What does this fold into?
Amino acid sequence: MGFLSNRKSGKDKKEKEMGKLINSKNVDENKRRLKERLKDCDDIVYKEFRVGEQQDLKFLLVYADGMSSSDMLNDAVLNALMVHAREVPPEAKEPGEELYKLVRYGGLPASELADKDNLEDAVLAILIGDAVLFIDTTEKCIVIGAKGWPMRGVSEPNTEALIRGPRDGFTETFRVNTALVRRRIRDSRLKLKQLRVGKRSFTDIGVMYIEDIVSPELLEEVFRRIDTIDIDAIIESGYIEQLIEDDYMSPFPQISVTERPDEVAASLYEGRVAILVDNSPFALIVPTTLNSLFQSPEDYYDRWYVASILRFIRYMASILSMVLPAAYIAVTSFHPGILPAKLVISMAAARQGIPFPVLIEAFIMEVTFELLREAGLRLPVPIGSAIGIVGGIVIGSAAVEAGIVSPIMVIIVAITAISSFSIPNYSLAVGFRMLRFLLMIFAGTMGLYGIMLGVLLILSHLVKLKSFGIPYMSPYVSFVGSDFKDTIVRVPTFLMAKRPVLLARDKIRLKNNRNLINRLEQEEGSDDKK
Amino acid sequence: MIRNNDTISPYQLAMITIMTIISVEVFSLAAEAADELGTDGWLIIVILGIINIFAALVIIRLNSIFPGKTIAEYSQIIIGKVPGKVLTGLFAVYLIIVIAYVTRVFTEVVKMFLLFRTPTEVIMLSLVLVCTYTVRGGVECVARVNELVFPILFIPFFIVLIFGYPIMDFSNLLPVLQTPPEKILASIPRMIFSFGGIELALYYIGFMKEPGKAYKPLIISIIFILLFFVMITVFCIAAFGAKTVTKIIWPLAAYIRTVSLPGVFLERLDGVILSLWVLTVFTTIVSVLFIASYSISKAAGTKEQKQYVLPLVMIIYYLALQPQSLAELYEWGNLIFPYAVAAFMYVVPAALLLTAKLRKMGVKRNESD
It folds into this structure.
């Protein structure tokens, strides 16, 4: 026994050393302990008040100023306890447990209430934005859900604007974001598992999935990877993305990021898993394939051939943005024979007097373009357009006139730039831009052969890459017929009967209604004849 | 997690077979065929194709006795541990020589048509190193690369081949079937290497979940190659005539050089098509290199094949630089490959199958099915 009690006291000591707080029955003592823990936190409000006929019941309300809605607290806590309790005096004969229950279940007109008997939890609740009510003579305290900090309203996502489609985008508030997704999936099988990650930030992370569509292995893998995260703070969902992605060396994003709740909902219906992070308007979607990064939500809202043409253009654009400067370098410096003689002559004439080899010329222009792009991005919108003028007109034409670059090079860079902007996913576009420089070096040293080697290197890398167990190049490497309906060609909606086979369990998503429509028309037609 | 890491699908087996067999010999195929049989050059390809279908049947039969096992594993069961390992080691040596040969031939083609001043060593080493990167990804990676490259290569290639019709004169193919049968048979050894690569199925079927499903993809891919080779030979002979073709080292490259696509602003297509041709050489080297490193790891009794790939590159590089000229290279090729290919494609599988049957292996397995 002595041994046991020793161990127990040792544990207590350890808890005290670590600064663990234990509730006391005395409100003043609780306040003292809280103040000790939250020393120099001047935004914490301690509101002490007394209730009862004799004003002898001591209450203490603690919350973080600005994080909790003071309207709500005034209304649901202070008004209820201080004013109404006077009109209808509480019938607690003695303070203690009974009084606590009275307040907890009858006294507070607030929807979100929880009991806590640990001061440590209470501190966390305060810091999250809830209010905590302490009552004298009882050890428990009541956590009142009163989160209400200033937040941005739901607005149109800037980075993923669409012509057609819903205009709402995620905000920085976790709860708003989950609500935006829930509004699109009114299914009890849509699950939201909440975790707190970050030893200091205690950031809310929500893993959303549809229970009977998602594959259990995928889900397990997602939770396993999130569990491995041990970090002080999660500021943005990018932290999570980088900590759980498969290959950190790859130039390709293996987790897609979106600001659009409709895209998240659509991905969940496909059997993917979404990870929402508090303080970030960007949701993560896993697993991601190269094909899915070329998809835009609009593809499904528009009619199928519009979507298919746009998809094709995007694929072409990605290839152009990667290969075009390299091909130009290769053809002009190694294989001019490929082009018709007239074109070769005019190109050679344009390059007359330019002091650099084509590779250097291309590098100068591409780097200049990257600089312009970056500068334009950082500047406020009115100055940003000025950068466009300076870059496009002044530098472009001046560089040509000064004889530093050839006009064809300017055209090449311009086409490359436009192409790289038409890739819907920003991080994918950046990946292609990086690879462009790699290919340019390959082309500058070994011509078309070098480009092919570079392409093969990229292809091998893509083929090796996996995102949460799904091959990055699927469906191009898995050859499941129905998955091909949503690749370069997006088939008419009524034909997309199945969810992606590799991802989803509940495979059938719609039934072909085309023949039903046609049958009705035929019947009407035959009626007319009669 | 969701898909097992070391299995391939029947479709992938077909892609691997096609992309492995079609490699550098395509350039010289028409010249060799015409050299042997004149205008009947295509006939020898048809005959070889049919022979190889039987060889493929033997290979599949052998593999289906030992499902999920490659020849490196079951040869140790059939003929004993040490002889099996020796056989696997010999196989690896043969495959390394094949890679060195293919690399060198391709380097010469690239030097002649694409990069005139680039040193042979640079071209060779860059190609093999890129292959190394792929091979280190394992069988799944190798299979997927083959799968992806197939359409990228063949769609433009067929378009270009067909647009050569203005220069073709099919009367060049006449007279038909004038060659005596013994001459046809005599020409088989020289042409045998063009179909070399089927023996890799001895390994790749072992990576399939169900070896029984190998029949269709393997036979279809051999027929595809057969038709493709016949097409190339016929087109080249039709374009240049049998006599001229024998004088050209690489008739196919010459053929592509003469093609001009109507309405496309590219004037000479040989550069484009030859750089696309990197793809098929790449897939050949990748498939063979993977099996070579796998064989060595099995012969050495290790689990991983990755660590053997880079040392192999050194050996391949050294071997590939040995011939001083193209003529010497082809001389070496004609000396080694007829025997080596015949041994590993026909003799070894047939002998192993016979031994396995005599020792009544796999009979029980069949009955339980």
User: Anything to note?
Assistant: The interface with chain B takes residues 215, 217-218, 221, 334-335, 337-341, 343, 446-453, 456-457, 459-461, 463-464, 468-471, 473, 476-479, 502 of chain A (CB under 8 Å). Confidence is low (pLDDT under 50) at residues 1-11, 13-19 of chain A.
